[in-house]
Amino acid sequence: MKNFLLLGFPNSGKSSIFNILSGKSRKVSNYSGISVDYAIAELSDNKNYSEEQKIKIIDLPGVYNLIPTTLDEAVTIGTLLKLNENIKDFSKVVIIVDSSKLEAGISLILAVKEIINNEDILVIVNKSDLLSYKDINLKKLEEYLGLKVLLCSTINEEEAKKKNK
């Protein structure tokens, strides 16, 4: 089974993405500091795949940079540096960036690139519902970062799930 870390600023949508992908209901709120420890779950779609193809996602507390100033930030940075006794290894670091804070998020992405191989990083620009197509050039962003970048809107996914219940 592969481990994917969800990393990003507080309130960027990490826990919302975790909930959507896992089917869990980790607490989310519109202010930072909600996730002070990590959560682990398998993708809700894992049942369709072999053990080697299955993915476990790990929702980490939010960080603004790679210098921890609080215990929850230390959990995240320790996990990223493979110092966490409970999470020995990971296959991907998925960096969640709030579209309204894209420039600040790029600084975190560039810092992570200094310690993690590019092929092991995926960037998700969340809250894309707040963007118009002219606000972001996805291809240029991918070229600048040298990374795969996806757009998503967890609020639209959550609303769709509520309507389908």
Structure in words:
- By secondary structure, this protein is α/β, with parallel strands linked by helices.
- The chain is 30% helix and 20% strand.
- It has a single domain (2-163), classed as P-loop containing nucleotide triphosphate hydrolases (Rossmann fold, 3-Layer(aba) Sandwich).
- The protein contains five helices and six strands.
- A six-stranded mixed β-sheet has the order 2-3-1-4-5-6, sandwiched between helices.
- Strand 5 (121-126), helix 4 (138-145) and strand 6 (148-151) form a beta-alpha-beta unit.
- The protein starts with a strand and ends with a helix.
Rounded Rg: 15 Å
Strand content: 15-25%
Number of distinct helices: 5
**Averaging pLDDT over every residue, what do you get?**
84
Side-by-side strand order of the widest sheet? 2-3-1-4-5-6
Structural class: alpha/beta
Q: Low-confidence spans: pLDDT under 50, at least 5 residues?
A: 30-35, 159-165
Gross morphology is globular
**How many domain units?**
1
Could you give the order of the helices and strands? EHEEHEHEHEH
* N-end to C-end Cα span: 30 Å
CATH class: Alpha Beta
